[in-house]
Design a protein that fits this description.
The protein is mainly beta. It has helices at 2-26, 72-78, and strands at 48-59, 63-69, 94-95, 98-112, 116-138, 148-172, 175-196, 200-202, 208-210, 215-237, 242-262, 273-292. Helix content is 11%, strand content 60%. The longest helix has 25 residues, at 2-26.
Length: 293
């Protein structure tokens, strides 16, 4: 009897196990759950306001200095008529400026489609460059030797600014190649002088008397000049807010005129004078860092 009970229990257990295995075999196999794909990276856009800083260097070409008289007495000196056989005052020598530049900028871009950009930008830069030069020639046929007469000029640019349009092409979504041009302004300082190695007087000594080896005509000016600028460069977008650029500008602020005056021989007389004229144009290469808002 005991053996029958054990056999019945064993048979029931085996049957239950077999049915469980069959049920498990009939269950559908679940696939592993896949993570959703990451969202696509945002397409960078250049549209918007930005501001930043820039630093670089500037230089000018060899720019001629030209002297012209404002009156008969100055013309007598300038044209070499003071002494028989004298040569005209040295004219046409050149000044070259060079130095560092740095400042701030701000602007707005409009990105048109995927490849084009138009914008406007203004900048202001402090400049640390100047140049000086001089010319000399000999007064011939003068008793006791052949003395020199010398003219000298110095020019410096203290600061400048521009307001420009920009037109760019996106070589890639992050690389902008652009051209730029517009209005320029800046502060230009200039000075000039005339020195003779010998003393002389004109008419005779009533209009002007120049001592030897000291400046006879001197003058300086400081003006805010206006002109134009043009250039181009490349800008690389680091992320949606930051970008770096390299840029070239040519700036032309026109011609500066410095009036150099001789002290009158007596009070109340009109002092003879020259005009010394030279151009103020220069090249700038600079690096910039901008933040887009």
């Amino acid at each position: 009897m005991r053996n029958k009970v054990i056999s019945s229990l064993a048979g029931a257990a085996f049957g239950f196990a077999a049915s469980g295995l069959a049920f498990a075999a009939d269950m559908a196999v679940k696939m592993p759950v896949k993570a959703p794909p990451p969202p696509p990276a945002p397409v960078p856009t250049w549209t918007g306001f930005y501001g930043g800083i820039q630093i670089g260097g500037g230089w000018s070409g060899d720019q001629a200095v030209n002297y012209s008289p404002n009156d008969v007495a100055a013309a007598a000196v300038l044209n070499g008529q003071v002494f028989s056989g004298s040569q005209p005052v040295p004219n046409g020598y050149r000044i070259r400026q060079s130095g560092a530049v740095g400042g701030v900028e701000a602007g707005y871009n409009w990105q048109a489609g995927s490849n084009w950009l138009v914008g406007v930008e203004a900048d202001f830069s402090w400049a640390e460059w100047d140049g000086k030069s001089s010319g000399a020639n000999v007064i011939v046929s003068f008793p006791g030797g052949a003395p020199l007469q010398t003219t000298a000029a110095e020019q410096s640019t203290d600061w400048y600014g521009t307001v420009r349009g920009r037109l760019g092409w996106l070589a890639t979504p992050n690389l902008l190649l652009f051209g730029t041009g517009g209005f320029a302004y800046g502060r230009v300082d200039g000075s000039a002088s005339y020195v003779s190695q010998i003393g002389f007087a004109i008419n005779p000594g009533v209009i002007i008397a120049c001592a030897a080896n000291v400046p006879c005509f001197t003058g300086s000016s400081s003006t805010i000049s206006t002109g134009w600028t043009a250039g181009g460069g490349a800008e690389w977008m680091l992320d949606q807010h930051w970008s770096v650029k390299i840029e070239y500008q040519f700036v032309d602020l026109g011609t500066e005129t410095v009036r150099i005056i001789a002290a009158p021989f007596s009070p109340g007389m009109i002092a003879p004078s020259f005009n010394a004229a030279f151009r103020d144009s220069f090249n700038v290469v600079r690096l910039g860092l901008n933040y887009r808002f």
